[in-house]
Amino acid sequence: MSALAIVLVLGAAVAHAAWNVLAHGSSRLGLPFLWCGALVSTLIWAVALPFTGGIGDDLAGFLLGVGVSAVLHVAYMLVLQRGYAAGSLSTVYAIARGTGPLLAVVAAIVLLGERPAPVALVGVVAVIVGVVGIGLVDRGGERPAGRRGLDPAIVFGLLTGVAIAAYTIWDAHALRAWQVSPVAFMVGCTALEVPLFSITLLVRRRHREVVAVARAAWRPLIAFGILSPLSYILVLTAITMAPVALVAPMRELSVVLVSLFGAFVLREPRPGARIAASVVVAGGIVLLAL
Questions:
Q1: ∠ CA 57-59-60, rounded to 5°
Q2: CB < 8 Å & 24+ apart, contacts of 104-107
Q3: Which of 88, 131, 250, 254 counts the highest number of beta carbons within 10 A?
Q4: Taking the CA of residue 166 as centre, how many other CA atoms within 13 Å lie in the half-sphere pointing to its CB?
Q5: Model pLDDT for residues 198-207, shown as the tens digit of each residue
Q6: How far are the Cα atoms of 12, 33, 118 from residue 229, in angstroms, in the given order?
Q7: CA gap 135, 101 in Å, rounded
Q8: Domain spans of the chain?
Q9: Whole-prediction pTM value?
């Protein structure tokens, strides 16, 4: 990977970790928070459109790209929330963040024709193993009492991973095929997410909660509106100059940063295991950067 692509992905990881830390707990407000976040993101970043290339010359390609991406992102968020409601949060998170990059790498090789070097593939494996390890730190091997059959956390974790891989590969294809500006692409996605979330809110009869959430969590919403799109804009920019098979795993450094914040600032349990898993991820990222 080029030095610039590495800097972009690392910057994306820092931005993603930062908004998760700043909005700690608020994002659990669910659909109302997501609706407000999509609206705030669109309003904030739309200002940058005239200075970042606009929507390009291919309007049909732009609309198709952001339309499919918005549907995939909303599906990802809904499946993730459903998983958190049905099973262990740590298990869903670990499987999703491990499965997503893994499937993205496979799809990039099969569908996009990318051919990472063997040492890079070793780095990919190390990152995925470390990320899954971080996610499983808090689980402690516990299983719900009296539950038989497949853990729903595993099912929804896998579905979330599939959604992550799907939007990652589609977004890379859209930017490369239609030469869309990453900022315009992100703004288009968040703008379309607003009506999609509106429909979901109405179906689930949660639309009345929006105003209350906006008033209670306006500070985290501003942090979300600035940093969450920024993190993905940096990723989108990186995949225009580097293989998706390398960018997708490297962006998981954000998981390490949030985990270390939890260990050293929030004093969450098992810091040694968190640090060990983080070292594995860091080693994988070094291999990806070679």
A1: 130
A2: 104/164, 104/165, 104/168, 104/169, 104/244, 104/245, 104/248, 104/249, 105/244, 105/245, 105/248, 105/249, 106/165, 107/165, 107/169, 107/244
A3: 131
A4: 17
A5: 998 888 888 8
A6: 9, 15, 32
A7: 14
A8: 3-141+150-289
A9: 0.88
